[in-house]
Amino acid sequence: MTSFKDAKACVRAHYAALSKATPETVESVLADVMPEEGIWRGFHPFNDQTGPKAVAQAFWTPFLRAMSRVQRREDIFFAGTNLIEGHEGEWVVSMGHLMGLFDAPFLGIAPTGKITMLRYAEFNKVLDGQIVDTAFYCDILHLMAQAGVYPLPPQTGAQLVQPGPMTHDGLLYDDADPATGAKTLERIEAMMNSISRANSLETPPTPQEELAMDWHDDMLWWGPTGIGATYTIDRYIEQHQRPFRTQTRDRTFHGHLCRIAEGNYGAFFGRPNLSITPVGGYLGMVASNIPAEMRVIDVYRRDGDKLAENWIFIDMLHFLKMQGLDVLERMEQLAV
Prior knowledge:
- This protein is 30% helix and 33% strand.
- By secondary structure, the chain is an alpha+beta fold.
- The N and C termini lie far apart (59 Å).
């Protein structure tokens, strides 16, 4: 039986060191665990970085200068073996919020002096005691909304600080039964196949029938800011699935770089996961008719034989920028 004890300990020790880092020391904290050739994949405007110096300059130093007294409020933590070609190995997933006092400008966003919660999900590949590959996806639109500068029309779902699992059992610091994780991964992949099968059939099942194969009726879909959170199959269809399927076209899946599960939890990410062409109405925007990528992380909780909760992170700023709308640049121009 594969044990993820060492990989988990590596990531937890790194997080403990980060909790004590300052803008001046964070590069050395990163260098303790990340090699010079280490890969870091962030959302726009951080994007792809290589090595600890670049990662510190792109994200951690500006973030720690802006946010005082940062705490990691972790809701989910687990590990697994990734079998996707080119990215095999042991990966550790962490999800929650980075909480701090917003005391200085960040990305051109004016500080509030108040508690601010940055939603995040992170994948770390651990090899020989080092973190060699990272995907750090965070919800910048949610941060903007908390600061009072939300840039889009009203979203279809609910906007809120999202809680962790209803069962409060998402921190798998000890290894779980491999058979349980295998069952979770099997259900996640069955759900993906259900979507593909529905799209390929001449007479597809109804949305309710499609979702009921893999989801509990009281499913919780914790969507990204811009779309929002929804509850129950019917409201998910109304508040996310129907707008997404009717207001976009040319939806193309590009695959994942990592897909793992442990216990009742599983997750995947892609770079990008898919591309779509907005035809009007999606995110409250006019039609661009320009294909755009979606960089996505999905984190799942299984309950019994079906999925119960899903937390989603989408790089909305990158998606909009590919259509000609640079949200951060426009905010800066309006502030002048």
